[in-house]
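Weekly puzzle thread! Below is a chain. First person to post its structure in token form gets bragging rights.
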Amino acid sequence: MRLDDTVTVECTDTDQTMEAQVIRMQGDRVDVMVSGLTLSLRRTKPGIYVGNRGGMEFVLKST
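Winning reply:
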């Protein structure tokens, strides 16, 4: 995963997936842009990033 890559983010509350663009990477954090909103995700396990926004949980799985 690199800057400006398009990734798939899943909302675990609604089981919906959406396309997102990686806009920032720093340490164990990744920020992605989804429909004009920024999601901040933190690595919880190798290749798995989790974040919350609006009371919902979002997961990004990178390879």
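Puzzle host: Confirmed. Bonus trivia for everyone else. The chain has a mean pLDDT of 95.
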